[in-house]
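Q: what sequence does this backbone want?
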């Protein structure tokens, strides 16, 4: 059981610390050898220093010091300060050494008065971070200072840590998996670890952890990392080659960190532009069909951004613009508009040069327009009455500007975030915690059961095989529509909408 600590950064007053060790200081009077003399001015460690023990150990031998003034006489009745040297890391970084009190609490510092022979002492409890530790002993009124060294050993092994615990690589490539046995507070232990393939398309060196993905493969793989009877698993996503544009944000409040471009294996991660105003409410983004720019909707504007960060405003309106997508031929940008003043809420499109804007479909609270590959229809999310529940996905035919009747209903499915495949008549829709791929006539193509907490955006790979799923509280994930494999990109946790570069 860890002892309770004083609040981080709380000052240890002279009065309080004297109370902590008053009995110790008093006991120095008659429990030391006779003063041998003569004396060298300064602070001499009598006993209790240069000790090696395990984390959190309370040392049996107190730290005794002898204080001698400039005249070579024992300094009686002076204040001695004992201060633990701060650690560089760990769960308790306040001090590498603590000073226990009779109350059961521990402190990162203590003070004592020397007795008539110039001796003072303090009880020592080693800290939680293995390695070098120390106590600074000082006598401010005499200008004296010295350091007493300790060595802290890790505790018994209780677990194994693995890094990276979850990452991605391309077929035929790989990286080195690392592991270590650790004690109860995370200090690394010297015991060897071994590596073994558990599942998936990878090979791993048993001693070094060097992992390589099988040539031509994609899928999810696992490698066990063991030390004695302890072990953990490292997860690997073997991904297709490609590049994403992704919105990154603060995990806590959704505030923007920036627009990012990154390869699917996590390499070449670079921030190229400011982010949307708040990623808790998805804005959407889309690569242009030729892969030259990224289309974003940061506020009341449609903005194109090159992979090197050059920005250009395509359109500006009075209200908020959301979820833009290019048509397959690159002639139009489709988007949802929240409405403002004389500009009604609904679905719009603007020409690629920004000169022509059209509203289509009935006005209302509608989101996430996604055009068909042939440009003749748009799937969208509708918040109006869907007969069963809100919201639902509908399809509007552009030549007639009317919603389709599908299997006797005016909607495709009760679901959200539609994304039309760029190469075939398939529409991905989020339905609860699953992703369904439907045909435009309403028949189910595939249903992928997943653990998607809140799908905020979906996009397809250029070949129509993969769906990029972005959601709250989850990393961006690749869904293989050919077999249902889910490949999370762990390095893209705290990232929002993602779009695949053509």
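A:
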């Amino acid at each position: 059981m860890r002892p309770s600590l004083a609040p981080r950064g709380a000052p240890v007053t002279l009065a309080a610390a004297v109370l902590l060790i008053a009995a110790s200081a008093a006991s120095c009077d008659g429990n030391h050898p006779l003063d041998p003399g003569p004396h060298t001015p300064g602070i001499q460690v009598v006993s209790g220093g240069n000790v090696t023990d395990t984390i959190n150990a309370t040392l049996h031998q107190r730290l005794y010091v002898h204080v001698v003034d400039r005249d070579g006489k024992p300094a009686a009745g002076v204040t001695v300060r004992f201060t633990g040297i701060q650690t560089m890391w760990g769960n308790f970084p306040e001090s590498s050494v603590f000073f226990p009190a009779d109350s059961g609490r521990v402190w990162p510092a203590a003070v004592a008065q020397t007795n008539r022979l110039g001796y003072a002492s303090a009880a020592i409890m080693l800290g939680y971070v293995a390695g070098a530790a120390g106590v600074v002993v000082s006598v401010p009124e005499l200008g004296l200072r010295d350091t007493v060294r300790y060595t802290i050993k890790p505790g018994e092994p209780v677990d194994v840590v693995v890094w990276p615990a979850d990452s991605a690589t391309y077929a035929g490539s790989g990286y080195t998996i690392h592991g270590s046995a650790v004690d109860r507070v995370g200090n690394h232990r010297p015991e060897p670890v071994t590596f073994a393939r558990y599942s998936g398309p990878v090979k791993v060196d048993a001693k070094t952890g060097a992992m390589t993905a099988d040539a031509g493969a994609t899928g999810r793989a696992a490698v066990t990392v063991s030390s004695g009877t302890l072990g953990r698993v490292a997860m690997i996503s073997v991904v297709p080659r490609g590049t994403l544009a992704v919105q990154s944000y603060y995990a806590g409040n959704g505030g923007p960190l920036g627009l990012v471009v990154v390869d699917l294996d996590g390499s070449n991660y670079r921030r190229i532009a400011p982010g949307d105003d708040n990623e808790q409410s998805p804005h959407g983004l889309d690569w242009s069909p030729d892969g030259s720019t990224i289309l974003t909707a940061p506020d009341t504007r449609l903005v194109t951004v090159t992979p090197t960060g050059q920005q250009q405003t395509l359109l500006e309106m009075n209200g908020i613009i959301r979820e833009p997508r290019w048509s397959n031929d690159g002639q139009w940008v489709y988007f949802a508009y929240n409405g403002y003043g004389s500009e009604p809420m609904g679905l719009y499109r603007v020409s690629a040069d920004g000169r022509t804007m059209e509203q289509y479909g009935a006005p209302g609270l509608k989101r996430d327009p996604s055009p068909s590959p042939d440009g003749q229809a748009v799937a969208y999310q509708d918040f109006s009455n869907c007969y069963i529940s809100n919201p639902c996905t509908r399809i509007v035919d552009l030549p007639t500007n009317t919603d389709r009747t599908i299997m006797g209903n005016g909607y495709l499915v009760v679901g959200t975030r539609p994304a039309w495949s760029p190469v075939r008549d398939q529409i991905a829709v989020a339905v609860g915690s699953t992703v369904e791929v439907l045909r435009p006539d309403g028949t189910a193509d595939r249903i992928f059961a997943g653990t998607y907490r809140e799908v905020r955006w979906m996009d397809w790979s250029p070949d129509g095989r993969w769906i990029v799923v972005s959601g709250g509280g989850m990393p961006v994930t690749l869904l293989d529509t050919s077999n249902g494999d889910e490949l999370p990109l762990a390095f893209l946790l705290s990232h929002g909408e993602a779009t695949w570069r053509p």
